[in-house]
Structure formats: C-alpha cells, structure tokens
Amino acid sequence: MSLLDRLRDSSRPSRTSTAAPASGSASVDIDGVTMRFGDRNAAEDIHVDVRPGEIVSIVGPSGCGKTTLLRAVAGLISPAEGRVRVDGETVSTTPDGVAMVFQHFGLFPWKTAEANIAYPLRLRGLPREEIASRTRELIEMVGLSGFERSYPHQLSGGMQQRTGLARALAVRPRVLLMDEPFGALDAQTAEVLRFELLRMWEEHPITMLFVTHSIDEAVLFGDRVVVLKGRPGRVHEVIDVALPRPRDRAVAMSEEFVALRERVWSLVMSQDTHRTR
Ligand SMILES: Nc1ncnc2c1ncn2[C@@H]1O[C@H](COP(=O)(O)OP(=O)(O)OP(=O)(O)O)[C@@H](O)[C@H]1O
Ligand SMILES: [Mg+2]
C-alpha cells in the first residue's frame, strides 16, 4: 500500500467527525469564464476542461489572470461570466477537496510546521488523535521529520514549500491547485521537489491545475499545456503532451520533451510582449 493510500486510509473521518469525506479525483470544467475587477477584465472567455486525475499546466505572461483563475476554481472569487464546475457542481464556495499551494508558501508565521499542516484539519473539527496521526504521516510523506516544531522562518524555502504541500494534502484533495509552487525556490531545490511531487502523483493521481512560468515544468507535469496570451488573458493554444509516464529524468531529456518545450516556448515568445509585460 502506498504512503498516500495509507494516508487516505488512516485519515478517513471518524463517525463523530463533521468533515465530509472526499475521495478520488474530481473533474474541473472552466467554462467560458471571464474574471473582472471593477471595470477591468483579468481573464476573458477561458475554457479549460480537466478530467479526473489529469494534470493541466497553465502558462502565460505576468498579469494575464492565472492566479485569479485558480482562485475562481477554489471558490474564493466568482466569475463575472461563465462558470467553474468541480465534478459537475457549479463552484460558489470552496468545494470539498479542493486545495491550493501558493508561490510564497502562504504559511502562518506564528505556527509551527506541524500546526500549519494541522490547521485545515482543525478547521474541519477532526478529533485530536486523528489530527495528530494524520499530521505525522503527512510530515513523513513530504520529508519534514525532525522539523515539526520549527517555525516557518526557521525553515529553508524548500522546507516551507514542503509544509505548504503537506497542508494542501491534509484535506485529501480531489483537486490540487498549484500556483507557481516552486517559483520562489532555488533551481536545485525546485528540481528535487518537482520529481518528488511527480512520484507522489504517480502513487495517487490527483487532478491538478498547475500554473507556472517554467516551460520545462509545464511540459514535465502536464497532460496538456494551456498557453494564455495577453492582458487580460485569453486561451492562445492548448498543446497535448503525449509523453510517457512516469515522467522521470530520462523523459525530461528525451527528444520528444525538447520538441514540446520548444513548441510551447515559441508560442509564449510569439506574444506581443509590449502589450503583455
Ligand atoms: N484583488 C484584486 N483586485 C483588483 N485587481 C486584481 C486583484 N487580483 C488581481 N487583480 C488584477 O488582475 C490581473 C491578473 O492578476 P493575476 O494575479 O491573476 O495575474 P497572474 O497571471 O497570476 O500574474 P503573475 O504571473 O505575475 O502571478 C492583474 O491586472 C491584477 O492587477
Ligand atoms: Mg500569479
């Protein structure tokens, strides 16, 4: 039994718990979504369809509305037009089993790593022992053993993002929203975490929307890469990534990988940089 399966098994809410069980992966349908702040659009007429267990990468210039779109999927803000559905249900508040990992980690500085990871479980009112055992497993899973009692400022960037990932996984997500999760890390740490996350995903494929500025990362993770263009962003092109899984280093060095990376790169570079920067 894989670590993620064990985690799911041991973390099933008890009968007294108020947390609704979430299981498996969910579909995400971003259907003609326009996001608007005041009288300005942040993204226009976006269509992205993600099947359960798929990873869809999203790339596009700064300010084209990527974070805003993820926030709409998380039910934190509502589209001005169109709708987002998770497993067919229109999103109005944060759907059960949807979790987000942020570029700047988004940890509570006054809480230890352990308390940050446990936070969503406390919010759900799980019994104390269940929170403790689930948190222990998460810490082991993301390789944070020995740093449970450290505060974020005492952790390296990589460890802080491991904490952010563990906190997102704590709710047994059916959809993981990744907002440039490795963007603030040094190249080497980012590389290590990328392959670790891919291994975790192989053990238990969770639906992922993966926003990144790294074209390599977009191709490495994605079943598809959605290239957004402009500000407000619109879908410019969707590239199918028919690379084999598991996506290991050998895949990342293959000719097919390089060809796809160049394709995405040329699409991104073909954009009107004066307008979009
Ligand atoms: N809460 C907000 N209020 C007003 N405008 C906002 C708000 N959040 C985002 N915007 C605007 O929406 C647009 C898209 O922002 P968003 O953060 O989604 O871009 P992004 O694609 O994630 O950029 P980056 O790659 O730099 O992270 C920007 O013009 C931004 O100023
Ligand atoms: Mg952003």
UniProtKB/TrEMBL annotation:
Biased composition (Basic and acidic residues): 1-12
Protein's UniProt keywords contain Nucleotide-binding: yes
UniProt KW Heme keyword: no
InterPro entries linked to this entry: AAA+_ATPase, ABC_transporter-like_ATP-bd, ABC_transporter_ATP-bind, P-loop_NTPase
Gene3D superfamilies recorded: P-loop containing nucleotide triphosphate hydrolases
Compositionally biased residues, Low complexity: 13-26
GO MF annotations in UniProt: ATP binding
A family per Pfam: ABC_tran
Keywords tagged on the record: ATP-binding, Nucleotide-binding, Transport
ABC transporter domain mapped to chain residues: 28-255
Stretch list, region Disordered: 1-26
Protein name: ABC transporter ATP-binding protein
Organism of derivation: Streptosporangium oxazolinicum
